[in-house]
Write a structure and sequence with these properties.
The complex is a heterodimer. By secondary structure, chain A is mainly alpha-helical. Helices cover 87% and strands 0% of the residues of chain A.
């Protein structure tokens, strides 16, 4: 009996800790936005972070986008030719990339490539007491260190997701049209009649903006709240990747449900 | 990292993102700046619209001339009212007929317009009078079986 009660207590404790942490991330996100006037007045700070988060993720995003598109082209053609509709492979590649894979896969790659780097950088700044030194000089680390990194991530991810989708469609084109020999005209024209600008492309961009906010908020929060030890920073980096990946997938389900059903 | 090199790379990055947005919008998607603005809307009442959806194509002689704007149930006439947005560069006579057809066996359904011979053209808000609804496969099979049974009255005696 006592074991059962203590078991239930452990479950309750874990749940409360998760809820507390989500609340802390939300408060941290709020205070980042409140303190973000500096990152727009001195926009060069944000541009620096767009370079480190966005430009340095370009290679991994472009290459994996190309490969994902090629695999979609191969698999889509393989399945569609059973129904004699291999001309629709362009529709399959474009819709799955623009609606789902572009925003989600680039967000997962961004979380492990740039999110972990942001956490490690801020965590190490805290461990070596650079953040306390800034406070001593009356410089608010929230607006000087956290906010530019946050906005750098929010600006970078939608651009990366667009590049991922575009590269993926080029990859699908290379496999389906150049390699297998699907007719080029029907590849593009069926794609154009099936992909809607508002319902597919704009919704994909909205998704990637939401993912950008979530990943950047989690990454900066984990870095800022990391225990100031080597072990603490490494743990925080791992938590960033795990919890932002989970957040991306969960938010994707919610956003997709709303986008398919309509917002009202 | 030198400040100007940094700016250059971020500029290239933003431009690349912008170009891929343009590619997605115009090459992959169907965003067409000219067509949305000047379209006129005509209505047609169908007994059955089958699987017709909003934004389905409206074709004449197989060429895309517009899109289905809205579909709603007319509770006075108990049929489906379909609003068709037709590109204003295409004019159709008032006795044009509209029918719901399917592209291919498993393809999507679309509205087909067959031009009539009248000298007056359809205006915005007009109604297309000559309509042919979607073919429901079950009804078609039922009709076929019914006709078959009627044609061969001797079959009844044979089965007994």
């Amino acid at each position: 009996m006592a074991n059962l009660v203590s078991g239930i207590k452990i479950i309750g404790d874990r749940t409360l800790k998760i809820v507390e942490r989500m609340g802390a991330v939300a408060l941290f996100l709020f205070s980042t936005i409140v303190n973000s006037s500096v990152s727009f007045k001195r926009f060069s700070l944000t541009i620096r972070e767009v370079y480190y988060a966005g430009v340095q993720s370009l290679i991994i995003i472009l290459v994996s986008g190309l490969f994902v598109g090629m695999v979609l082209g191969l698999q889509g053609h393989e399945t569609l030719q059973r129904y004699g509709s291999e001309d629709s492979v362009g529709v399959l590649v474009a819709l799955s990339l623009v609606r789902e894979l572009g925003p989600v896969v680039s967000a997962l790659l961004f979380a492990s490539r740039a999110g972990s780097a942001i956490t490690a950088e801020i965590g190490l700044m805290k461990a070596t007491e650079q953040l306390s030194a800034m406070e001593m000089m009356a410089v608010n680390p929230m607006s000087r260190v956290v906010a530019p990194r946050f906005w750098g991530g929010v600006i970078s991810l939608p651009l990366l997701a667009l590049l991922f989708s575009a590269m993926g469609i080029i990859g699908g084109y290379l496999i389906a049209v150049v390699l297998i020999g699907v007719d080029s005209g029907s590849f593009w024209s069926q794609m154009q009649s099936a992909v809607d600008f508002e319902h597919d492309i704009v919704n994909g961009i909205i998704k990637s903006i939401v993912f950008g906010v979530a990943i950047s908020a989690i990454a900066t929060f984990e870095g800022y709240e990391a225990p100031p030890t080597a072990e603490g920073v490494s743990g925080a980096t791992t938590r960033t990747v795990v919890s932002s990946s989970l957040a991306v997938l969960a938010l994707d389900l919610v956003l997709t449900a709303f986008m398919l059903k309509g917002w009202n | 990292m030198e400040r100007s090199t940094l700016n250059l790379w971020v500029g290239i990055f933003v431009l690349l993102g912008f170009f891929s947005f343009l590619m997605l919008a115009f090459k992959v998607g169907n965003l067409n700046l000219s067509s949305n603005q000047d379209a006129y809307i005509v209505t047609a009442h169908f007994d059955n619209i089958g699987q017709l959806k909003e934004r389905a194509p409206v074709r004449s002689a197989g060429v895309l001339v517009g899109r289905v704007k809205a579909i709603r149930f007319d509770s006075k006439q108990y049929n489906a009212e379909v609003k068709l947005a037709i590109d204003s560069q295409f004019k159709f006579p008032v006795d044009t007929s509209a029918s719901i057809l399917t592209s291919g066996i498993l393809g999507e359904q679309y509205v087909s317009l067959d031009a009539g011979g009248d000298e007056k053209y359809l205006k915005a808000g007009d109604q297309i009078k000559l309509v042919q609804g979607a073919v429901v496969l079950e009804k078609l099979i039922g009709q076929f079986l019914y006709n078959k049974a009627q044609d061969t009255p001797s079959a009844k005696g044979a089965t007994k």
